[in-house]
Every structure is written in C-alpha cells, then in structure tokens.
TrEMBL record:
The keyword Magnesium does not apply. The keyword Iron does not apply. It comes from the Bacteria. Residues 13-361 form the Enoyl reductase (ER) domain. This is Alcohol dehydrogenase catalytic domain-containing protein. The lineage of its organism: Bacteria, Pseudomonadati, Pseudomonadota, Alphaproteobacteria, Sphingomonadales. It comes from Sphingomonas corticis. Keywords: Metal-binding, Oxidoreductase, Zinc. InterPro entries: ADH-like_C, ADH-like_N, ER, GroES-like_sf, NAD(P)-bd_dom_sf, Zn_alcohol_dh.
Length: 365
C-alpha cells in the first residue's frame, strides 16, 4: 500500500477544543513500524486529557496548544517498517498497547513499562526512547501513527476492527488481575464499576476460572452486559447492600476485589468486601484525596495494588482470550463514527448518549 506524505489528524487546542489539522506522516525509527489506523476507541482517559490535560505530558507540560494528537486505543495495519524490524510485515493487522517504556530503567527491565521511570522524557535534547502514544507522544486520532514493535499485538483474521480496539482495555483488566497474583481459578473476584475496564475484567476473570465472579454497579443495562460477559452474580448497589451480599455469598469476603470506579465510596466498599488477607486492585484513577478505612485494611492484612495501564504484556495475553472467544468483548462496543465526526463521538462517550459504552471512530483513507 502506498503511504502518503501528509495526513489528516486532530490536535488539542485549548482545554476541550479539538482542531482538524494536517501533519507529515511520521517515519518509523529503529524497532518501530508505521501503523495505518483503521479504528480508534474513545477512552475515559481521552476525555480527561482533552478537558483537563493530565495524565498527558507533552514537553513536560500540559498538552494544550502544542500540536499534540490524542487517542490511544487504536488498531490498523502495518504500513511501513523501520530499520531492524522483521517481526511484522507490511499489511499485518495489529492492535496496540499504549506504553513503550524506555527499556533501560529498573521498572522497564522488570516488565513494568507502564511505570517507566523515564515517563515523558522524550523531548528536546533528551530522548530516553519512552513513548506513550496519546499521552506523551502523538496518538491515534489520525490516519497514521508510529509504534514500537513491543507495543504491537496481532489481530486474528476473524476479529473485526472495532473489537480489536478493545484489546488494550481488556489488557488493562488483565494487568490488574496479574498484579493481584494472576491465578484466580476457583477464587472469588468482585468487580466494582461496570465501565469498559470493569466489564472486561469480568470477562477476563471468568476466563481465568475465577468463581464466583461478582459485578457491582448501579445501571441495569451495564449489569446485564456483565452477566453476558460471564458474571455469576450481579448486584445493583442502589437496590441491595452489596457489601453484606458479598460477605453472605462468600462467607468470609472476596479473595480479590477490583475497584474500577475510583470513588471514595467504591474504595471503602472494596475494603469491606475483601476477605482477611485478600487483595484489592485500584484500577481507576481517584480524584483528589480519598478518605478510606485503612484501619480495616491493615488490621485484616489486606494488600492494596494501584495499577497504571497495561504492563507485563497484558494486552497480548488478553488478546489470546479474545481470539479464543473466551468472552465477547464486542458487547461493550456500542457506537461507530467517522473520525471526521470526532467531537460528536466524544459527546456520545462523555454524556453516555444512547447508553454509549465504547465509541469507536474510523478515519477515511
Ligand atoms: Zn484508555
Ligand atoms: Zn523505562
């Protein structure tokens, strides 16, 4: 396929303002490929970056008015190879992880590249090789993007473009379970918050053999999708005392709790649902300081894990479950727009218009 020299992109202007623009098509460096983007899912973190800035970091500053292109949950086809790449061929369908760590710091060396100690140190005279497309480097609301081969995951032929964009979300869920200890077969997992990460955490936990898998939320339509993704029990926190129900169901509290809501109430619920010696993954970004019952956590020897993104090749591992149809990730994809209509697509995702969960945009080529 021919690669043009210029491409259509969206860039971030002032807070909340996306602009249509053109940029040169980037060229892949050593160990990198050029991806011709076919589909991009909109993430809550994109909404956060576009409106407020963090966690994006461009030139060490807020990402506004710097010609920065957000978007990080994309897939497409390899369009060109950088020097030294023989792992992929032009035309291969790929989905992407966000973070290419520097590869040389202690965190990267242990597989924790989403916690790279050189995060964002890739501008001006400093180039540590770190990339987080859509966070510290140009992302996917464009026709093309450059990705390190370490961030690529093959997309099976039978999988549609929209579903493939969900691999990074499923990978984040997988990373949460990995950090909790990974082998959850026969152990109880509670997921609080049926957003995209929570819903796919249900699918991943079930595929890994967790039993029972319990989903706690407040919106019936989302709890219903959770059931279809494999939840054994769904609890509507508006109707039942979820903490009491989980203590009843498990006798002693849950082995693992994934908080995918990030509120003070949900984190306290997680602590009170967890068994003595159990493990809690905080998979959502809480805002500001949170008043939590640490006394209960410590007295009961609980472990708290904060996670950031999708380390330890979790996207590849989640994609293996998706490829084997162990759960149907496409259940959370609700809308598709042309990328020309990105602001409208963002409105659907932000305001949950028409019960939107995952909204995907597709560039024209
Ligand atoms: Zn995301
Ligand atoms: Zn690093």
């Amino acid at each position: 396929m021919g690669v043009p020299t210029r491409m259509d992109v969206w860039t971030l202007g002032s807070p909340g303002e996306l602009r249509r623009a053109q940029k040169p098509v980037p060229s892949p460096g050593r160990g990198e490929v050029l991806v011709r983007i076919e589909a991009v899912a909109i993430c809550a973190t994109d909404l956060e970056i576009i409106a407020n800035g963090p966690p994006a970091l461009i030139n060490g500053r807020l990402p506004f008015e710097q010609d920065f292109t957000p978007g990080h949950e994309y897939m497409g086809a390899v369009a060109a190879l950088g020097p030294g790449v023989d792992e992929y061929a032009v035309g291969d369908r790929v989905a992407v992880e966000i973070h290419a760590g520097c590869g040389q710091c202690r965190r990267c060396r242990s597989g924790m590249y989403t916690s790279c100690l050189n995060y964002g140190r890739n501008y001006g005279d400093v180039d540590k090789g770190h990339r987080a497309n859509g966070f510290t480097t140009d992302g996917g609301f464009a026709q093309y993007a450059v990705n390190h081969v370490n961030t690529l995951v093959r997309v099976p032929d039978a999988m549609g473009d929209e579903e493939a964009t969900l691999a990074v979300t499923a990978g984040t869920s997988m990373y949460g379970l990995t950090e909790l200890g990974g082998l959850v077969a026969g152990e109880s997992v509670v997921v609080i918050g049926p957003g995209p990460i929570g819903l796919l955490a249900v699918g991943v936990a079930k595929a890994l053999g967790a039993s029972p898998v319990v989903l706690v939320g407040t919106r019936e339509n989302r709890l219903d999708i959770g059931s279809r993704l494999g939840a054994d029990v769904v609890l509507n926190g508006r109707e039942v005392d979820a903490v009491a129900r989980i203590r009843e169901l498990t006798g002693v509290g849950a082995d693992y709790v994934l908080d995918c809501a990030g509120t003070e109430a949900s984190i306290n619920d997680a602590i009170h649902m967890c068994s003595r010696g159990g493990r809690i993954c905080l998979a959502a970004f809480p805002h500001g300081r949170t008043n939590v019952d640490l006394e209960h956590a410590v007295v009961n020897n609980m472990y708290l894990y904060g996670i950031r993104g999708e380390g330890k090749s979790a996207v590849r591992r989640a994609m293996a479950l998706m490829a084997a149809r162990r759960f149907d990730a496409s259940l959370i994809h609700t809308h598709t727009f042309d990328m020309d209509d990105l602001p409208e697509a963002i409105r659907y995702a932000r305001d949950r218009v028409d019960d939107a969960i995952k909204v995907v945009v597709r560039p024209r080529h």
